[in-house]
Amino acid sequence: MSVIQEISRSKRTVSPRRKGDGRWALFFLAPWFVGLALITAGPMGASLYLSFTDYDLLSAPEWIGFENYSRMFDDPRFVNSLQVTFTYVFVSVPLQLAAALGLALLLDKGMRGLALYRSVYYLPSLLGGSVAIAILWRQIFGADGLVNQVLAIFGVQGQGWVSHPDYALGTLMALNVWTFGAPMVIFLAGLRQIPQMYYEAASIDGASKFRQFRAITLPLLTPIIFFNLVLQLIEAFQSFTRAFVVSGGNGGPSDSTLLYTLYLYLKGFGSLDMGYASAMAWFLLLIIGGMTVVNFLASKYWVFYDD
Amino acid sequence: MTDASTPTKTATAVLPPSDGDRPPGTEDRRPATRPRGRQVRAKVGSVLKHAGLIAFGFVMLYPLLWMVASSFKPNALIFREPGLIPTDIDLSNYTDGWNALLHPFSHYLINSAIVVLGSLLGNLLSCSLAAYAFARLEFRGKRLWFAVMLMSIMLPIHVVIVPQYVLFSQLEWINTFLPLIVPKLLATDAFFIFLMVQFFRGIPRELDEAATIDGANHLRIYLQIMLPLSLPALATTAIFTFIWTWNDFFSQLIFLTRPEMYTVPIALRTFVDSTGESSWGSLFAMSIVSLIPVFIAFLFGQKYLVKGIATTGIK
């Protein structure tokens, strides 16, 4: 059902050979092949090459070996953006998934108004990536924003959350948690696939609701949890729009919202240090790829496959 | 609470269902009324649960509702009124916002619409073609290409954006919509290939075989059997392409730098920069204008959206 299961399954499926489809395949795949060569694979190779050069778009790239990569770790802004991004990802994604799972469990099984609740909770994840919502966030968490107006009702004096280096990143994390609807819908679909008879058998044996959750729901849901985790981590690492808009394009205050991709953009398209930006992009690929591999390896110990 | 309703369950219980959580002395002597008391408790629980879910949903949507309300308020009130009901309805934020930038806002809406339409056409055509090959044709290296396609779904755009920029600027495509549309015509949104492969696999092969016997070639099978039977998958693709392209910021920010080429997200961002904090009202008004198409797509396409993310796991 998912990309991830498909990858692990693709080893197994061997289709019977038939002759004569080669030309047709070339015809149907022609656009994709051209796109792969010119838009994906070609540029990938080119950016790997550029990551070993000094390149400013105006003069020809100059080979400098690993210098971009070694410069990265001497660059305090880079190290900081790495820290900011890891904090953002590893705090907000677990919270987002916990909210998604919690709500999915509450909404389970043909309750009245299920479709309506699902829509209401899902809507923010459709809108959350837009500039408009980032603008809204900037106002809500501003000094005179909605949050502080509500706090004032309770007599609490708030502050400018987006303009304080200690809190600005927190507002971005809150935005990420707010978009829990998409993983929630995936959890709901997963819950629906658990056969009802397991619960019936368990309640005949006198298992409490909590026991049923621990012994049936949770283990059978681990593949979905794993899937959501991999997907949301990859996505969170690439968050850009919200940091750009909320900080006014510079990752401020004091670089506290300088997410990785924002710094990459500023380097590549702000100061035209394209070699450095390419090196950053490949390092990002390394982080995301490495993290995904670790996730897959670790999944052997906690993900339960029914088949 | 249905554990007393079926005979098999009550038969396994030697003792009558316990009332352990009731205070002593309050238990009902007549067994017939017991289920009723339990029903009441279940009902109270369900009402509480619904109340909680509604309250939570309201809190979640409050920022959105408040933005809508604030877009009808004069600026001074936005900073004083956390409530939803505007004291008097004022449309000047919309007229001011519409004309606040170099071009009227309709100009940016049209630009976004062009990019969206081109992307829609591109994704629907190119991804369904590729999906047909992966779902129905046998060719050398199929498994390898399929794996390559799957991996390209996960590829961060940042790894290719710099060379793409170089390529497109050499073609003199910067500040045209081509860098945003042409890649879609070349099936680079591989996610949708995967989605359609999954769908095509569910269509019975007997249909193609019958068509083959009748002398149809693969192009006719694709056009006259697969596409008409795949409307749900095409609809899912269309809606997601629409919403993603409409909301896309990163690539539009890079490829469109001239104000007359700005799309809605880029125009909004410029609006923030040019007015700063001084005119939240008109900024909100235009933000809402920018969200309306997504909201409409959500209202009418919900079924396909939910199905799409449930079967493939996307946003």
Automatic annotation (TrEMBL), chain A:
It is a multi-pass membrane protein. Keywords: Cell membrane, Membrane, Sugar transport, Transmembrane, Transmembrane helix, Transport. Residues 82-295 form the ABC transmembrane type-1 domain. It comes from the Bacteria. It is found in: Cell membrane. Belongs to the binding-protein-dependent transport system permease family. This is Multiple sugar transport system permease protein. It comes from Promicromonospora iranensis.
Automatic annotation (TrEMBL), chain B:
It is found in: Cell membrane. The keyword Cell membrane applies. Gene3D superfamilies: MetI-like (1.10.3720.10). Residues 19-31 have a biased composition (Basic and acidic residues). Its main location: membrane. SUPFAM superfamilies: MetI-like. It comes from the Bacteria. Keywords: Cell membrane, Membrane, Sugar transport, Transmembrane, Transmembrane helix, Transport. InterPro entries: MetI-like, MetI-like_sf. Residues 1-11 have a biased composition (Polar residues). Pfam families: BPD_transp_1. Belongs to the binding-protein-dependent transport system permease family. This is Multiple sugar transport system permease protein. It comes from Promicromonospora iranensis.
